[in-house]
Amino acid sequence: MTTTDVESETDIEETQGAENIASGELGPWRAWASATGPADRAAAEDGVRRAYRLAGLAEPERVVWVGSPRAAITLIRDDLSDRGPSVRDAVRSAPWAQQRRSLHVELGAEGWSAHWAATGGRLWDSTQALVDRIRTGVIEDLAGRDTGKEAAEIRLLLLDAVLGQHDAPWLAAFPADAGPLDALTAVCRNAGWWWPYARVAVLSERPVALHRDEAGRLDHGDGPALAYPDGFALHAWRGMPVPAAFLAELPALTPERIRVEENAELRRVMLEYYGYDRYLTDSGARPLHQDETGTLWRIDLVDDEPVVMVEVLNSTPEPDGTRRTYWLRVPPSTRTARAGVAWTFGLEEQVYAPVAET
């Protein structure tokens, strides 16, 4: 082994070790970002007041608690005309920019990029998607279908917020005791979103429920995927927003109800919930093709591409001697069961044939 080989392996081990350490250190940040339950109001208020002082500002005259970001926007719009100007830039943006510049100088451009990828970058996408969904939900709740002046006003007020627990991704990239960021971290650990104004700080409770799928998307079939203590809630199925009434209907679905649904996206949700195999059975569908690899089925849908699936039997028996049935979704153009199974392996039908016969 050459010296160069040794150095390369050492570099790889050091990099992997650093990533493992960073991943472990992310545990608390990940927990805070997804935390549910009552805020620690005393600890959060202490963090807010320290953030003001560290920014060179007088502490807020009042700290007001609300049940959700929606309630915060309603309060700020309707009842807090004496709040004074937003001081978000002073308490949040300026200290963040200062710490980022400092760390960027210390690590260099490439070092900063690698550091961000190993820390906050790992939490960013899923957390930011949740933030965007909350903002959209608040606008929809308060402005309805209006996309004009009222929606624009609400959007601007939402951008005045410091995100509390949902600031975890970028806070995770810096030392927890990094001056002003320590105060922001205290709020992140103990509360939801908050709005800093010159005379008043508005703090929101955290959610009481949060349900996500393995991909980090909002997902719950038996109620809100995200719910706050004051009733503000978001309903979703595998990341797709759905009406609350729609979810309540799912347990009583029938093939006929699925067929008459005009919204193609909601119909897909119905099929996933009901089960493609169950739908095929209950709707009296007939197979398109059958061979030794399986059975090809097709579901024609109005204003949507058909669902084509291959029903296959597992070649390995279960402990009790039975064999499990699997349903593989394949492209609508599939014409034979063998072609469908081959497609799942990335093969053409004629290439897959010899393998199937062994």
Automatic annotation (TrEMBL):
Residue numbers spanned by region Disordered: 1-27
InterPro entries linked to this entry: DUF6745 (IPR046633)
Domain of life: Bacteria
Domain DUF6745: 154-358
Pfam families: DUF6745
Segments of skewed composition (Acidic residues): 1-16
Protein name: DUF6745 domain-containing protein
Species this chain originates from: Streptomyces sp. R11
Classification lineage: Bacteria, Bacillati, Actinomycetota, Actinomycetes, Kitasatosporales
